[in-house]
């Protein structure tokens, strides 16, 4: 069926898509807007399958879009959580160096944190670590007080309410399978009928590159899915962790390493690893999509990725198949953790953009075209930064609307 024409249609009902809709309606209250989500509910993938951490902005290269949007987005998110009365805590986290070779990397993280505007950072000597986390050990640590926790599914649901209150629409079970231009408009063919709009926005996460190509664009980047597998501490061992405990990350990789995360409901999750997934929405180890595998094998950047990061990939696979190895990795931070303390928890899949040279794209990436704005890469900390990313995307959309 044909619908009334919209000013803006947003493909993707995750946090970035919903935040973009909110920002557009704030800046232009009369904007006729619809969000199209393929699944029966919003935040079905990355936005609702993460660790719930509100990132501080510690890790990101100063001046990068990640660094700027994380710090600004975190502040906006804390305000939104208060306004919407969503459970959250500004609990802080401890980043621990467990070897002498990690100390310079930890010092560089402290430097980056100060440049990025973090407040309250504190270098923690080895003997002081138990004051923050009684069961943790290491050679030194960095205390990051602005880190927090929340439930991002509740954040997404609150954004849907706000969008509805301001006159916008969110349609679920509306998968886009075709896009074409008609005179001065764009028509999106969806499983819920045709949608006509003046400007189309792609915030499709795991399908971001495919949606861009469906729109006639030719991004060089490809989404390669990485599954993050979690365990959680059994209830009687949750007391091993007060809040959040992280290792010093490998500076060559955009993944943070397995860590401990207390959730707002009291559970303590551990993980994730980062193992190549054989399906973009492949949350189980044996989930396979012939289409997804075929596209990966046909992409030259995939083979360069394997050559570049193959050794790290093997380490992550070991963690996937061995609970004992997972426990050993965690015991570097909290020596009392044992294999029997862990039970399986939910997994997530990260949409990681890879360029033709095989490099993991380390920053958010936007692509503009006539009557279109696409978010091609929005990995962590996109959940934390979503409200700020939404403002940036909305500004570009409004600029296009004003030109027409």
Spans where pLDDT lies below 50 across 5 or more residues: none
**What's the number of structural domains?**
3
CATH topology of the largest domain: FAD/NAD(P)-binding domain
Annotation, overall tally of beta strands: 22
Major sheet details: 8 strands, mixed
Radius of gyration: 21 Å
Structural class, by secondary structure, is alpha+beta
Helix percent reads 25-40%
Description of the molecule:
This protein is an alpha+beta fold and 404 residues long. It has 3 domains: 152 residues, FAD/NAD(P)-binding domain (3-Layer(bba) Sandwich), CATH 3.50.50; 53 residues, no CATH class; 138 residues, 2-Layer Sandwich (D-Amino Acid Oxidase, Chain A, domain 2), CATH 3.30.9. It is 33% helix and 25% strand. The strands form 4 sheets. Strands 1, 2, 9, 10, 11, 12, 21 and 22 form an 8-stranded mixed sheet that branches. An 8-stranded mixed sheet has the order 6-7-5-15-16-17-14-19, sandwiched between helices. A hairpin with a 2-residue loop joins strand 10 and strand 11. Helix 2 crosses helix 10 and helix 8 packs across helix 9. The radius of gyration is 21 Å and the shape is globular.
